[in-house]
Design brief:
There is one protein chain. The protein contains three helices and three strands. It is mostly helical and 78 residues long. It has a three-stranded antiparallel beta sheet with strand order 1-3-2. Strand 2 and strand 3 form a beta hairpin.
């Protein structure tokens, strides 16, 4: 399966979370791009975050964020 743009938008949000600090969430502001706002809503609907506009990661969301960070690290060009 290829990543589509919706998936990439969701991954981009997941990599914004600081996975070393579970007490820190994120807030997607109303002036963010429509794609970002929609991606945040999809993550909430999937049960990965606790708020429609970001919030905190759920346990499954933390796992997804860890994987997103790992993938991002593997794909970085030095």
């Amino acid at each position: 399966m290829k990543f589509n743009q919706d998936m990439l938008d969701e991954i981009n949000i997941l990599t914004q979370y600081d996975i070393s600090n579970t007490e820190q969430g994120i807030k997607i502001h109303h002036d963010a791009s429509e794609a970002t706002i929609a991606a945040a809503a999809r993550l909430f609907k999937k049960g990965l975050t606790d708020k429609v506009d970001g919030g905190y990661l759920t346990p499954i969301g933390k796992s997804a964020s860890e994987h997103a960070h790992a993938l991002s690290g593997l794909l970085k060009v030095n």
